[in-house]
Specification:
This protein is of the alpha+beta class. A seven-stranded mixed sheet has the order 1-7-5-2-3-4-6. Strand 3 and strand 4 form a beta hairpin. The longest helix has 30 residues. The radius of gyration is 21 Å and the shape is elongated.
């Protein structure tokens, strides 16, 4: 088994943790600066409270992101052995410029999986080769309550935070 990519759970979740921290710092900072006593500074009622509403909205986003991220981590990781069927390089618009997203479409024979990868990892992947992926599946908070009991097994699974990619024999 050749290791292609490995990451700790902290590294895998670092983007979400950064976003959560950003929301909390900006939200609390805005609340404090907006509602602490000010010296000889007059602001309109609407401007002051609209900034307070934005701060509360940032805190709500931070809390919601924390709950979703914790739920994903708590559900645990999953390991699948798959064969790469296709490598995709997609050009998408990122604000004012264009960015390239790299992905691999894989299958284990019954389900299809799509993994988004970094360029260096994507370059090492080979079409037709078999890999073992360990990842944290993305699952909505209320998924178990909203799905029907008799619903057929999905043919596609949403993948999330990847912690290990290893090249294995087919």
């Amino acid at each position: 088994m050749d290791i292609v990519y490995t990451a700790s759970p902290i590294k895998a979740f670092s983007g979400s943790l950064f976003f959560i921290g950003f929301c909390f710092i900006l939200g609390f900072g805005n609340l404090l600066l907006n509602y602490l006593p000010k010296k000889k500074r007059r602001e309109g009622f609407i401007r002051r409270h609209s900034l307070g509403c934005v701060a509360v909205l940032l805190l709500v986003f931070g809390v919601a992101s924390s709950v979703v991220t914790f739920n994903t981590y708590q559900n645990g990781d999953k390991t699948v052995q798959v064969q790469v069927t296709e490598k995709t390089e997609t050009l998408v618009k990122c604000n004012e410029s264009y960015c390239t997203e790299y992905g691999v479409d894989t299958t284990d024979g019954t389900k299809r999986y799509a993994f988004g990868l970094e360029k260096t990892t994507w370059d090492q992947m080979e079409t037709g080769a078999c890999y073992q992926f360990t990842y944290y599946p993305l699952e909505p908070l209320l998924a178990e309550y909203l799905q029907d009991e008799n619903q057929q097994q999905n043919l596609y699974e949403t993948t999330g935070y990847i912690t290990l990619i290893a090249h294995i024999a087919c």
